[in-house]
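Lecture notes, structural biology module. Today: joint structure prediction for complexes of two components.
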Amino acid sequence: MIKPVILWTDMLIFLLTAVVVMFIFYARSKPHIRAPWQRVFTGKVASASVVVLLAFVLVGLLDSLHFRLPLASNGDNDEIHYAGEVMSALDTLVGPLRTQVEKTYSAPFAAHLFARETIELADGSQIRDYPRLLYGARSLGDAVDGKTRDILLRSLLAFAEMLLASALILLLIAYWLARRHERPVRVLIQDILQDKLTIPWRTVLFMLSLLLLLLLLAINLAGAYHVLGTDKVGQDVFYLTLKSIRTGLVIGTLTTLIMLPFAIFMGIVAGYARGWIDDVVQYIYTTLNSIPGVLLIAAAILMLQVFIANHSDSFETTVERADIRLLFLCIILGITSWTGLCRLLRGESLKLREAEYIQAAVSFGVAHRKIITRHILPNVMHVVLITVVLDFSGLVLAEAVLSYVGVGVDPTMNSWGNMINGARLEMAREPVVWWSLLAAFLFMFILVLAANLFSDAVRDAFDPRTRDR
Amino acid sequence: MFAYIIRRLGYAIPILIGINLLTFYLFFVVNSPDDMARMHLGMKRVTPEAVESWKASHGYDKPLLINSGAESIHKLTDTIFFEKSLKLFVFDFGSSDDGRDISFDIGQRMLPSLAIAIPSLIIGLLVNITFALLMAFFRGTYVDFTGVILCVVLMSVSAMFYIIGGQYLLAKVFRLMPISGFDGGLDALKFIILPVVIGVVSGIGAGSRWYRTFFLEEAGKDYVRTARAKGLAESLVLFRHILRNALIPIVTGVVSLLPLLFMGSLLLESFFAVPGLGSYTIDGIQNQDFAIVRVMVFLGSVLYIIGLIMVDIAYTIVDPRIRLT
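The predicted structure, tokenised, for the full assembly:
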């Protein structure tokens, strides 16, 4: 039996996922909530970026299912001992990527190590040459010359598989739409391919095919080669970037969400109640805001390090320790960044409390608590949503900077910040070790770009000021 | 106006006290000076005597808030809170944990920070306004559309990649300038160029897209329509009417940043090995020098508050419609 390990951030991630799913079901029956979302999804750019974001989220969720494998039992006692290493569902899916560790750096698709070493030949003589990789291009044996051909063949296979899979997806979407619109499947296939529907299914399909191609390429190639090379200790860089996705997503989402209830409550109450409550809330956020963010985070993380060092016994595994640090980083980042939202909400509810329908509710004698939850809260939710989505990309980028400064996630945790940090000194090598940086750059860039494009669409759809343009 | 400034400065005092209490709590209550000492001496097997002597030599051996062993006023002054926290108010920063005078270091490092920060700010401002104006001039066309997309793409690149990429391309491949370092006097110029260029480029995306919205907002106003109705050329409308009014939020935004320029840029300075306040802060964090971090938190907050006050003053100067009361 495997032993599930539920980390703090896992719990929060699944909680968040559950809330989002529940919200989707709730919103489906409410036309006034559905309308702006429909506006978001009619945009081609927005739909495409949602597909990309969902792919990232899928990887992140798979990587959040943690467990520990049992060790082979020795003797006949019933007690099962578990491996110290915490695995995730993603680890089991990618299988060999995790275990095929080389000695040190190797370039993408390489068959040999990056550095010369002294190799002892069978006859006892020694030469200095690039040693053969243990796993990279292993299927070729010593016939390394056939590498290009092998890669091409595998890529072609992936491409063919992609075409098949895309056709299948097209059929599925068309079939599903046909059932909903009660029209023949053939017509809907035409509509999708000619992009005649409100939701740009053709763009979605194109993005899906692109992602599928990448996935199939990874499946066909990553097992046989190190597609993005290996890092200093010989780990597969592709695997490391995949693992980093979860860290980026956690920082981007949990940070705002942890402080969200607090920011909403403080902001609305300050604007609605005014008077001394308003003064206190304003004082709190001005004070927090005037401390330079990086320094507050640094101070808090330094404190946390001392705390962890003092309580090192209470963490069973390094993963759990790293997870606490990640959660704490989210909280601290949240504390430094909730002030902006709080200020916005205060202004918004200051405006709303003078609105006629609120005045009417007050004169009817509706309780303040009810006015806030029934009348003000639903009318400021668009501000909250826009802020959450806008903050996401900034937080993902901030993680890298904080890790560089040394106050980011735990050094043992896979994150783009740590990858960049580990790789940046290698830029001075000759020839340059560029693949770790490139991998972190590409994944981060795609995630942040998709998030930025998506947040623009959300803002345009929800912000009443831009809606009518 | 003068009375207003005095009152605003008065508001700043409770905020600074709050910051001071917060940092005091973080640095001395959440973690005791004992923890700090052990951290510096290495975690394992530290004798209590070593901890005590480290605390004594760094002035952390006093009681936190009230020294019951001392006489009269010294009951309050001979404490960590007075020595380490209250003295920040008179800009007495004391010495760092490795024994250097923090005030002296800050004075030394301010100039290099400014040498990078001021040119980056000015050039960045000019470049961003130019791009934003271009996009606003061609609004609604493909130039505008591509420009916005390009801005989003530029925004999505981490600042670290601009630095690493810039260092690699400009300094290593093309050998146009030294990769990093700093020098006094005119020699500093060759070290400054690269950080400034990278600082400007990394800000183009977010900056020009943001400024573009200011221009577009102004462009939709009545006086602009009137100006067009009079038959003014579009470029004249843009430069004489829209630009001047849109500069109000831009200038005030920049003014709020001015005091913080002293703090320098963390990333740029540490990547380019510029001996400024930004790299000082990073060194403090990485060496776990609590004294430096504490001082920089205080200094940063003071500068931020000064920035807030300067914004209000700047508003009255650039926009005569606003009166401070």
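Point to remember: Residues 368-405 of chain A form the longest helix (38 residues).
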